[in-house]
Amino acid sequence: MIARVAGAARAGESRIPVEDRLFSLVLALLATETGLLKSEILSSVRGYAERYDPAGQNANLERQFERDKDDIRELGIPLETVESPDRPGDNQALRYRIPKGQYDLPDEVRFTPDELALLGLAAEVWREASLSADSQRALTKLRSLGIEPREPVIGYAPRLRVRDASFEPLRQALDRRQTVRFRYFKPGEAAPRQRTVDPLAVVLHEGRWHLHGFDHDVREPRTFLLSRIIGPVAPVPGRTFEAPPPGIQDRILAELDALRLQNSADLAVTAGSDAEIRLGRRAVLRDDDAGVIRMHYTDVAVFADELAAYGPEVRVLAPDSLRDAVRSRLETVAAAHRGGGEQ
Predict the structure, then answer these.
(1) What one-character-per-residue DSSP string does 78-121 give?
(2) What structural domains does the chain harbor?
(3) Which residues are within 8 A (CB) of 298 and not within 5 positions of it... i.e. 6 or more apart?
(4) Main-chain dihedrals φ then ψ at residue 306, nearest 5 degrees
């Protein structure tokens, strides 16, 4: 028996989300033993049926179905095609199905209700548009295993946001192995410079996104802060590169961790201040009697920006380079305020 997951299109009906269409397709293909023809899928499955034209003008739907097939297979779902014995070689007579026995979880793999709820919550965390494709695929996979991520778990769902506009074009370029160009502002330089880079990894370290890639301008690997990329990230037509080596993300994170541990700062913080509370949580050593804490940091410019925001609540004791960077920022702010008062 063929399970049809469809509904008549209504005027003003909202667009069916991608994960809902894929989920409906998986359900339909699991529910058939003999398989479904493409025409049966497009005319009956939710997400296609609403736009299906019985007159046969369904080229866009067919292209969408081809993309959805690839997405389903990328999820690890064993989508099969079965040729008609009466019409061998006829693509219109192909039937599609998902063998339920091959898709079921192994008997030894079981999840508790709490584990299922946490899996669903994890899939819901990433809701920023730049990560929607990953989130949609994860939700489809979970729902096809019987997990409904939209059920409330703790009364609210957390959200992780990607604020750097360059994240998504860099991620797409990495997936496609496409060389890109962008303008990058390096501290100490008067203006941003154009960089031509093969993006090899995008990693999150200490709450900030980093791009690691091969910089063609210096002919060496470089790591960039996404927050310092100015303007759009543009692919270079006809320029591609080989797949990054396995484990490159772990290697870059390890290098960033090592760099962080190399850099330490001694800070005097005002007792009871916001600086003492916030920075104290990250201190690796502290002398409460003297009001001094020691912290590690990865990037002197980024850390100086943070410390300068606390104003007189924090004073850099060491190193000199960090103290000078913080002083420079405070002097710039003071000069801007003096200039404003004279107008």
Answers:
(1) --EEE--TTSTT-GGG-EEE--HHHHSPPTT----HHHHHHHHH
(2) 18-103 (1.10.10), 107-161 (no CATH), 167-246 (2.30.30), 263-342 (no CATH)
(3) 205, 206, 256, 259, 260, 263
(4) -65, -45
Phi, psi of 310 (to 5 degrees): -85, -10
The label of the residue with tokens 């709450």 reads 207
**Does residue 298 contact residue 259 with C-beta atoms inside 8 Å?**
yes
pLDDT per residue rounded down to tens, the chain (343 residues): 333 333 433 333 446 777 778 888 888 888 788 888 988 899 888 888 888 888 888 888 999 999 898 888 877 788 888 887 777 777 778 899 988 776 666 666 676 767 766 666 655 554 444 444 555 555 555 555 554 544 443 344 444 455 578 988 998 898 889 999 999 999 888 899 999 999 999 998 988 899 999 999 999 999 999 999 999 999 999 999 998 888 899 999 999 999 999 999 999 999 999 999 999 999 999 998 999 999 999 999 999 999 999 999 999 999 999 999 999 999 998 888 886 544 4
Provide the whole-model pTM.
0.57
Contact between 115 and 122 (Cβ < 8 Å): no
